[in-house]
Write a structure and sequence with these properties.
The protein has 121 residues and is mainly β. Helix content is 7%, strand content 43%. Strand 7 and strand 8 form a beta hairpin.
């Protein structure tokens, strides 16, 4: 398993958010450097955000969720009865880790007009 994991849930739909593009960055030399990314699977997870053997050093990291792309696809899904737009076109979650190799889980609870995140387990 990746040291950093995420799970995106669409609270308006009451199910996992499949197809959310995610980019993962490290703060290096006063700038953001992309070190991983992908798209959430049918369960709203991105299991291989980082390679399994990668242990990140202590520092500041950013997980960038492209919520506009997700909602744009969702709005064109037959039978969709939700909002016609999203208020937050992207969600950037910045966090710090200690560098001890511990697992960090960054969940995102998402709706067209709001979001929430926390440190998961």
């Amino acid at each position: 398993m990746s040291q950093i994991t995420t799970h995106v849930l669409d609270t308006a739909q009451g199910k996992p958010a499949a197809g959310v593009p995610i980019r993962f960055f490290a703060f290096v030399d006063d700038d953001w450097e992309q070190i991983g990314g992908g798209e959430t699977n049918a369960d709203g997870r991105l299991p291989n955000l980082l390679e399994e053997n990668v242990v990140l050093p202590a520092g500041r990291y950013l997980m960038a969720f492209d919520t506009a792309a997700y909602f744009k696809k969702l709005m064109h899904t037959p039978g969709y009865r939700g909002a016609e737009t999203c208020f937050y076109p992207y969600v950037d979650v910045v966090f710090e880790i200690s560098g001890d190799g511990e697992h960090y889980h960054i969940p995102l609870l998402l709706s067209p007009y709001g979001y929430s995140t926390y440190r998961g387990s």
